[in-house]
């Protein structure tokens, strides 16, 4: 229960909202799992990628877009949009976890492990980006600048200076590496 309190505090939401959101995400997970099981024969499995510059660049761009979407959404002075984006990202990943279990667990253990690490890391990554974004929106109004973007930038500096950037860089590197290895391009 302590983890639930921490999440509700960090996302500035209520316990009931969080439980309702988890219930909806569980429904998405179940639907994705059922569709994956039904269409299992039609899915083609690709092997691990040969790491080359093109694959590394494409996986870097994928990570870059995740960061940019939360950076852009933190400019909007309402944390609701960040929470909605987090909800859709986590719901999408839960569906992907169901897909990973059904498709890769039986015969492809290395790809299964890499994809599972990538998906769990993605949940932690978007959660941390959402917390930073929500904190930026919350502290933005307390900055002593006239220009909105100056206040936003000062709030971003405050949030990233609190050693959150170390965890963020670690999560980004894991996501980047597992994306480069396990996601077909």
UniProtKB/TrEMBL annotation:
Keywords: Membrane, Transmembrane, Transmembrane helix. It comes from Secundilactobacillus oryzae JCM 18671. It comes from the Bacteria. This is Uncharacterized protein. The chain crosses the membrane at residues 20-39, 51-72, 84-104, 116-137, 165-183.
């Amino acid at each position: 229960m302590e983890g639930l309190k921490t999440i509700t505090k960090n996302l500035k939401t209520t316990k009931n909202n969080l439980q309702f959101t988890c219930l909806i995400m569980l429904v998405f997970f179940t639907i994705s799992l059922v569709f994956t099981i039904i269409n299992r024969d039609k899915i083609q499995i690709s092997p691990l990628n040969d790491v080359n510059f093109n694959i590394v660049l494409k996986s870097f761009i994928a990570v870059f877009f995740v960061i940019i979407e939360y950076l852009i959404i933190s400019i909007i002075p309402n944390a609701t949009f960040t929470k909605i984006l987090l909800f859709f990202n986590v719901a999408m990943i839960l569906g992907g976890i169901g897909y990973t279990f059904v498709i890769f667990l039986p015969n492809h253990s290395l790809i299964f492990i890499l994809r599972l690490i990538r998906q769990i890391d993605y949940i932690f990554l978007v959660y941390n980006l959402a917390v930073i974004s929500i904190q930026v929106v919350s502290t933005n109004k307390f900055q002593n600048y006239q220009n909105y973007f100056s206040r936003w930038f000062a709030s971003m500096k405050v949030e990233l200076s609190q050693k959150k950037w170390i965890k963020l860089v670690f999560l980004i590197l894991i996501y980047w590496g597992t994306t480069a290895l396990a996601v077909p391009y």
